[in-house]
Amino acid sequence: MRFSVTLRLGPVSLLQRAWYWRTRQPVPRAVTPLPTASEAVRLLPQRWAGIHKKHATRHRYYWAPCPLCGDHYGGHQAAGSVPDPLSGPGTSMSVIICPRCTRAGRSVNIPYGELPDHRP
Ligand SMILES: [Zn+2]
After folding, report:
1. How far apart are CA 8 and CA 33, in angstroms?
2. 117: CA distance to ligand 1 center in Å?
3. Does residue 7 sit within a domain?
4. Residue 81 and residue 51 in contact, taking contact as beta carbons nearer than 8 Å
5. Which domain holds residue 100?
6. Residue 5 located in a structural domain
7. pTM (2 d.p.)
8. 112 C-alpha to center of ligand 1: Å?
9. Domain count of the fold of the chain
10. 20 to 30 A from 1, CA-CA: which of 14, 83, 100, 118?
11. 90: CA distance to ligand 1 center in Å?
12. How far is the CA of 70 from the centre of ligand 1 (A)?
């Protein structure tokens, strides 16, 4: 079974730059645009979980526990990622972690040249 995904990328807005700075991630050259409200709300402190949960529910983002710390966060707050422990080593599968864990440096970035090649 084959899947295809197309992402429309755009320039990085000031709110998006603030998000990457806040989560201590490198600012990419281009990003998938989010609604401006989501870009603004995700900059609110994570401890304001009620606002984040309401925003996630209203805009159909997920609301789920972080796989590392167990704190709930919304899909609009998706930040860093870590290798998916269920997929095993050598795969490029990853799971998203919360902004707090990302800011704490718990995210794992695999350099592009070290990603496994899954082409047939
Ligand atoms: Zn976390």
Report:
1. 8
2. 29
3. no
4. no
5. 14-114
6. no
7. 0.81
8. 24
9. 1
10. 83
11. 24
12. 6
